[in-house]
Amino acid sequence: MLPEPITKLIIAEDEAEDAEQIISVLRNSGIALRPQRVATEEELAACLELFTPDLVLANPACRDVSLETIARALDATGKDVALLALTDRLTDDTVASILVHESVRGIALRNRHDQLQAVVRRELEALNTRRNVRKLEAALRESERRCDSLLDSSRDPIAYIHEGTHVRANNAYLEMFGFGSFEDVEGLTILDLVAPQHTADFKDLLKRLARGEKPPPKLDLAAKRGDGSIFDAVMEFSPATYEGEPCQQIVFRLPAADTATEEELRRLKTEDPLTGLYNRAHFLELVDEAVARAIAGASDQAVLLLEPDNYRAVLNTVGLAGADDVLRQLAETIKQRLRESDRAGRIGDHSFGILLTNHAQAEVQQIAETLRSSVEATIIEAGDNSTSLTVSIGGSLLGEKNAKSQVLLSLADDALRAASGQGGNRIDIHDPGAADKAEQAREQQWLDLLDAALEQDGFVLYYQPIVSLQGDGGEFFEVLVRLQGPTEEVMPSHFLPIAERNNRMLAIDRWVIAHAIEALARGVGKPEPTTLFVKLSTLTLHDETLADWVDEKLAATGVKASQLVFEVPESKVMTCLKQAHDFVERWRKSGGGFELEQFGSGLNSFQTLKHIDADYLKLDRALTTDLAHHSENELKVRELCSQAHAAGKRTVVEWIEEASSMPTLFSAGVHFAQGNFLAAPVPEMRYVT
Description:
By secondary structure, the chain is α/β, with parallel strands linked by helices. The protein folds into 4 domains: about 5-135, Rossmann fold (3-Layer(aba) Sandwich), CATH 3.40.50.2300; about 160-255, Beta-Lactamase (2-Layer Sandwich), CATH 3.30.450.20; about 270-435, Alpha-Beta Plaits (2-Layer Sandwich); about 450-675, TIM Barrel (Alpha-Beta Barrel). The strands form 5 sheets. Strands 18, 19, 20, 21, 22, 23, 24, 25, 26 and 27 form a 10-stranded mixed sheet that branches. The chain has a 5-stranded parallel sheet with strand order 2-1-3-4-5, with helices on both faces.
């Protein structure tokens, strides 16, 4: 029996005790959870950076994060996430105020455990169904496309016959009999294509096939083209189905084949003869493939549609004879501005489609602007005339929510009409994951600040003491980074999510590590060693050169590797287990330490230690907040500490904000404690004893 899939859950609740109660109710019903609690907008943003949830339970009465904010944040992820409101009781006003948000899919009652469990299970089933439907739709489109592609690309003339009538024929078959399209043959029976001298025998064969008799492997006969000409052919039969109906597949063999002609036909099937770009049919197949990749989790894809502005006026200038030159040069400009991985096609008389892959949102906008400005700057020679063009470009980013070909192309077309309707020579890119375009400008401002900080040492390190509760010698600090803003220092929760989305974390991590080593170097020779705990991003774990780079920095300064402990959240380690394992093994061989943060948030966190040999376990703060008033959490902490001791691991508890938790931590055997109650972070290493 397959295990219950783990549901990634976010609970928006002010009180950890209330969230723990909901988690317990759901777990007792057999729902496997990986939960996270948030109580503020900042915590929500940080949590969404860690992982994409399957389900969000939100209390509309939360003080510091509203239901509307949560819905907007989930929409911005571009992912299909189930959002349920969690309330104590229902009134008309309550229902109306909650369900006015389109993203809220239902309401769960906190104190009716049976209803809560039923609503959550129903929503998870609906979410799973939606995801499966998208996968099946993509698989069906892919299967149909591949079948049609294989059929149409076959050199052999192939047709499917049901009750003597054509239901499908490939291009080679149509060409053999002189038909321009399948519509020309759709109303004909196969008998109409058999020469008169063989009609009677072939009619008998069809009757035998209708009775279920086995067809002959081959049949030599004379066939008749649409113009009445006769040619010799060999027919091969095999049973098949088409659109669920039983039929016969018939393959015609000719004595000889014109290879050069077949190659040319194959090229023309995918290429537009005028522009050299892909034709409409093949470009739409490429869009289907991109949609399938998006459903499978791929990102950074987009579709652009491009049209010349005032095309009729252009034709009046160059004439019909020059129209082809205009389109050819426009196509050439498009080809010159795209990467090798991008694809372009002519999808209408003067319309072009562009499929972009591996381009972030900012790059899509930049590519569109490059195309627009390049066309505007080009002088087009059309026959004896010269002219210039402007174009309108509309597009849509491709994400899981709009992962349907028709929806994607419709969104791109709407954007194209919007750009054209505003006077042309414009760009309009639809982003399904961002309702507010101003957010893009805001993010770019942050990126400019981050890039400037990396170039000009615009970050500041803070150090928060980590106090040993078991008498360990030496001093221990966690390294925290701040950004020097225009007017004040900026907390990491504001800029690190943006840095991670835009591939700046590797550079920031290296900056922090380098400056942390410099700080340790200033204390070389002290009688008591200083140990720094430094956070790493997931991206940095993928950097195979990091450990060697750190070793070089340590050797140059005389700092020991044992004075550095790198830390990564348990949930993030699980997303790149192999890379994390390889990095930890390499770093520990150098003598360095490793810590798993937010430990205990998974269903069986100690299973992770079979893959990641961590030295320190920093317990999940949801388990350690206000321990004196949460007996369930206290039991969990004691259990985790007991298992950690048995495994030879040291435990760390952070966010100690009150004295009442300290006796519990001592008695539970916690090794280290950290929090503002003990000492707040400061820009210098000032230890407390």
